[in-house]
Write a structure and sequence with these properties.
Number of strands: 5
Largest sheet: 5 strands, mixed
Structural class: alpha/beta
Radius of gyration: 26 Å
Number of helices: 14
Shape: elongated
Distance between the termini: 49 Å
Oligomer: single chain
Helix content: 55-70%
Strand content: 5-15%
Low-confidence stretches: none
Number of domains: 2
Length: 373
C-alpha cells in the first residue's frame, strides 16, 4: 500500500472520528437492527386476543373455553353477550378472533351428537389469521379425542365430538397483498415526508442558502410551509398511486371512505413532517440527516406491526409499540380499506394520531424557529 493511500485513509478516519454524532448513529443502527430482528422478527403467534360469545352457558361450554385458553394460542380478553358486540370488538381490533358457542352445545354432547361451534377470525393480518385458523381446528380435535376417551366403549367414529366452523372476515382468502396495500399507504406517508423533509432543510443549511432566504421578507412559518408542502403533495400522489394499483391490479377492495382515509392521513402528516423538521434541527449534514431518519424509521417498521405481528413480539416490545405513531395509522388504514369501518370505531386511533402530531410538530417548529433566530 502506497503512502498516498495511507494518508487518505488516515484523513478519512479523522473526519469520521470528529463527527461524533454520525459516528454514534453508525454504530447504534446495527445494534438496533440486531435487537429488533432478534426479538421482533418472528411469525410464531400466540396469546391471540379472543372474544367469547357463550350462548349455551353450561359446564361443557366452559370446558371448551378453558381448552382454548390452555392451548396458549388464545387469550380470552372479552366476553360478548350478542353477535353485534362481538363484531364491534373485532372491528375495533380489541380482539382478533371470536368463539361463538351456540345454545344446545352441551345438550348435543350429552346426546353423543356432533356439537358445532363457530370461530370468527379477523383476516386483515393473514399471519395471525392462518395461525388462528389452524389452532382453532387443532384444539377442537384434541377436545374431541378427550371426550371420546371419557366415554367407555366410544370412539371418534361413534362420538362426533366438537366440530368447528371457522369464518374469516375482511380477507376470506387470507391474501397477504390485502394486508400489504393498507400498510404501504401508511409507510409511504412516513418514509417520504420524514426523510425528504429532513434532507431538504439540511441541504439548504449545508449549502448556506437558508441564510440567504432569511434575509428576505419571508418569515419562518412561511419558510417551513414552502419547504414541506411539495413533499406533502408528492406523498399523496404516491398514496393515490398505491391505492389505484392495489385496486385495479391486485384486486384489493376498498370498503370504507377514501375521503376519511385522506383526512386522517393529513393528520398523520403532522407527526411525520414534525419528525423531519426535528431531525433537520439536529443534523448538520445530509448524510447525518439520512442516518437519523433511518434511526427513527426502522423501529416504526419493525414495531408497528407492518413486517411482523405485534402479538408475536415479547411483552416489552408490545408496550413500546404503543408510542409508535405508525402503529395507529396502520390500524386506521386497515380498518378503512379492509373492514370498511368509520370514525365511530377508529376514534381512539385518530385521537392518538392527533396527540402525537400536535406534540411532535409543535416541538419541531419551535426548535426550528429558535435555530433560525
Amino acid at each position: 500500500m502506497s503512502s498516498r493511500i495511507f494518508y487518505v485513509i488516515y484523513k478519512e478516519f479523522i473526519h469520521i472520528v470528529r463527527d461524533r454524532r454520525t459516528l454514534a448513529v453508525m454504530f447504534l443502527i446495527p445494534i438496533m437492527q440486531l435487537m429488533l430482528l432478534g426479538y421482533a422478527m418472528t411469525t410464531d403467534v400466540d396469546h391471540i386476543p379472543t372474544v367469547v360469545l357463550d350462548q349455551d352457558l353450561t359446564s361443557q361450554s366452559r370446558d371448551l373455553i378453558k381448552a382454548y385458553q390452555a392451548s396458549t394460542y388464545f387469550d380470552v380478553t372479552h366476553y360478548a353477550t350478542t353477535e353485534e358486540e362481538l363484531r364491534r370488538l373485532i372491528d375495533k381490533g380489541n380482539a382478533r378472533v371470536g368463539l361463538i358457542i351456540p345454545y344446545g352445545y352441551g345438550h348435543d354432547l350429552a346426546k353423543h351428537q356432533s356439537a358445532q361451534v363457530s370461530f370468527v377470525i379477523d383476516g386483515s393480518d393473514p399471519t395471525v389469521a392462518r395461525t388462528a385458523f389452524a389452532a382453532a381446528q387443532t384444539v377442537a380435535q384434541a377436545k374431541s379425542i378427550q371426550l371420546a376417551g371419557e366415554k367407555i366403549g366410544l370412539t371418534l367414529e361413534t362420538l362426533p365430538g366438537v366440530s368447528v366452523h371457522p369464518r374469516v372476515w375482511y380477507n376470506p382468502n387470507m391474501k397477504s397483498i390485502n394486508f400489504m396495500i393498507p400498510g404501504l399507504t401508511a409507510l409511504i406517508l412516513q418514509f417520504q415526508t420524514t426523510l425528504f423533509t429532513a434532507l431538504s432543510i439540511v441541504r439548504e443549511r449545508e449549502q448556506g442558502t437558508i441564510e440567504q432566504l432569511m434575509v428576505t421578507p419571508i418569515r419562518p412559518p412561511e419558510l417551513i410551509l414552502g419547504k414541506i408542502l411539495p413533499y406533502v403533495a408528492i406523498a399523496f400522489l404516491n398514496l393515490a398511486e398505491v391505492l389505484i394499483i392495489g385496486v385495479f391490479w391486485f384486486g384489493v377492495p376498498i370498503r370504507g371512505s377514501v375521503t376519511l382515509l385522506l383526512a386522517i392521513s393529513t393528520l398523520f402528516l403532522l407527526t411525520t413532517l414534525g419528525l423531519g423538521i426535528l431531525i433537520s434541527t439536529i443534523a448538520r449534514t445530509q448524510q447525518e440527516a439520512m442516518y437519523l431518519s433511518f434511526f427513527t424509521l426502522l423501529p416504526s417498521m419493525f414495531l408497528a406491526g407492518f413486517l411482523f405481528p405485534v402479538e408475536a413480539m415479547p411483552t416489552a416490545l408490545q408496550v413500546i409499540s404503543y408510542v409508535i405513531p405508525l402503529r395507529y395509522m396502520l390500524t386506521v388504514a386497515s380498518g378503512i380499506i379492509l373492514k370498511g369501518v368509520g370514525l365511530r370505531i377508529l376514534w381512539p386511533e385518530v385521537l392518538a394520531i392527533a396527540i402525537f402530531g400536535v406534540v411532535i410538530f409543535g416541538v419541531a417548529v419551535r426548535r426550528f424557529r429558535k435555530r433560525l433566530e
